[in-house]
Design brief:
- The chain is globular.
- The protein is mainly α.
- The chain has four helices and no strands.
- The chain has helices at residues 12-24, 26-37, 44-57, 64-92.
Length: 93
């Protein structure tokens, strides 16, 4: 049974595609940079609305909670990679 209040789980493929688009889509990155410059003049709710719309325009359809999860996963992955890189650098010296 599907519960209406249950959050949609993100698949590995969805998370990988999100990261791929952020890393390789130059137009998306440019628009994200432009949106980031507007952050100080927008409220958080309006900023998030525009962010979700921008992703939707690039066929990355998600809701606010899914966006939060994808950004958290990306942040944690970056932290792990930085720790791994630092560990390799220490071993090399």
């Amino acid at each position: 049974m599907k519960w209406p209040w249950k959050k949609k789980k993100l698949s590995f493929d969805e998370a990988a595609r999100f990261n791929w688009e952020l890393d390789t889509n130059a137009e998306l990155r440019r628009k994200l940079d432009e949106l980031a410059e507007q952050y100080a003049t927008l409220g958080e709710k309006e900023y998030r609305r525009k962010l979700l719309l921008l992703f939707r325009e690039n066929d990355l359809v998600m809701d606010s909670s899914q966006l939060d999860m994808l950004l958290l996963l990306r942040h944690k992955t970056d932290q792990m990679l930085l720790r791994q890189e630092a560990h390799h650098d220490e071993e090399a010296t």
